[in-house]
Amino acid sequence: MTSFKGFAPGRPRTIKLPTAFYSDLLPLIDDLAELKVTLFAFYAIQQREGEFRFLRHEDFAQDAPLLAGLRAAAPSDDALHTLNNALDAACRRGTLLCAELVLDDGRIERLYFINAEPGRRALMQLERGAWRPAATEPVELLPERPNLFELYERNIGALTPMVVDLLKAAQADYPADWIEDAIRVAVEKNARHWRFIAAVLERRRKEGNTRHETVEKFDPLDGKSYKDRSSILHSANR
Length: 238
Fold this sequence. Notes:
Arc Repressor Mutant, subunit A; three-stranded antiparallel sheet; 12 helices; 7% strand; disordered C terminus
C-alpha cells in the first residue's frame, strides 16, 4: 500500500459537497469507481464558470489522477472502460444527468451535469435548443496554494491589523487571483507595499487588462493610479 504524506501546511483549498451527498447519496453508492467519478464530478464542476456548468466526457477521460484512481479500483480492467461504466452508473443512480450533443462534424459528444437545480435547468435549455455550450478549457487539478494572508506575509511584509483589514476588504472587491497577481507584480517591480498592490488592482479593474498588459503599462509614479475608488484605496493612501 502506498502511503499518503499528509496535506500541505497552511489553509488547504476545499470543494463544497451538499449535505445530502453524505446523508442520502453516499449510503447508496456501492462501487468504488462510481464513488471516485462522482467525487471528481463535484470537484471539477466547481472549476467551471458561467450560468450553466457542465463537464464533457473528455474532462473525465483526460484527467490523469482520476484514471489512476480508477485503475486502482479495477486493476484488471482498462481505465477508460471502468470510467464509462462508472459514468453510466452515476447517471442511472441519478447523481449525474447526461445529454448527447451532435457536433458540426457529426460526432456525438456527451455532456454531464450535476443533478441539482442548475444542472436540470441547463439540460432543459439544451433540449429546447435555447442554449448551446461554448468551448471550454480542460479541467485541471489545481495545486495547493497559500492563502492571500500567507502570500502577503511571505512576499510583502508583516500582517499588521490595518493590512489584514485591507486584504479582507480587497477580497470582497476583487477575485482572489487578481490580488495574488498584484502581489506578484509588486515583487517583480520591487514595490513591496500595499499602495502599489491597490493601484495595480484599480488599474486592472478600470482597464480590464490581462496581467501582462497591466504589468507592462503600470507606472508606480503615475498619480492617476492612486485615485480613490473605495475604502481600500482611501485607507491605503493615508
